[in-house]
Design goal:
It is built from two helices and eight strands; from the N terminus they run βββααβββββ. With 180 residues, it is mainly beta.
Length: 180
């Protein structure tokens, strides 16, 4: 739904009649001016839906999620000069009360080349996972990455650098596009 040329909303809910519960839900509100944007979003997937659609065993599922997925996210991007752009994103899991991932990017773009720097931190597992007992650990284990992107533009008819990869599990999605 477009409120005006700068404010957009997208949301959806999938209800399982057999289980009498919501299986999937998502919602995103975005403010956008040209290439600059800020987006707040929420994503939900029930534990039962994950188990039934991915055919995970109960012990595997128990060591990876207690209640399914319930995440709040904040993303933004801002071109603060014709040559410089910054982007960031943050996701928080409301069921585990832990930051799931965050990403910070800065990119310089000249007429014929670009260079970008990314720093990301993502939850990868839980310390103390026990497949034998089927229990998830209590201490999150994170993976941190630093990435440098460099490229040449203007070859093959393209004059703009490709978008910097997000490197995240849940990347940016435009709330008014149906195929995200």
């Amino acid at each position: 739904m477009n409120f005006n040329d700068s404010v957009f909303y997208r949301g959806g809910v999938q209800y399982d009649l057999d289980a009498s519960q919501v299986s999937i839900g998502n919602s995103a509100l975005e403010y956008r001016v040209n290439e600059d944007y800020i987006q707040v979003n929420y994503r939900y997937v029930s534990r039962e839906y994950i188990k039934s659609t991915l055919n995970y065993s109960e012990s595997y599922l128990q060591t990876n999620t207690r209640e399914g997925i319930s995440q709040v996210g904040l993303m933004g991007g801002y071109r603060f000069s014709p040559k410089w752009v910054v982007k960031g994103q943050y996701f928080y899991d409301t069921t585990e009360n832990v930051s799931m991932e965050w990403l910070a990017q800065i990119q310089y773009e000249s007429d014929c080349w670009y260079i970008g720097f990314d720093f990301s931190k993502q939850l990868r597992s839980w310390e103390g996972n026990s497949p034998e007992t089927g229990n998830i650990g209590n201490t999150p284990i994170f993976e941190q990455n630093v990435r440098v992107n460099f490229g040449i533009t203007g070859l093959g008819g393209s004059t703009a650098p490709p978008p910097s990869p997000t490197g995240s599990a849940l990347g940016y999605s435009r709330p008014f596009m149906l195929n995200n």
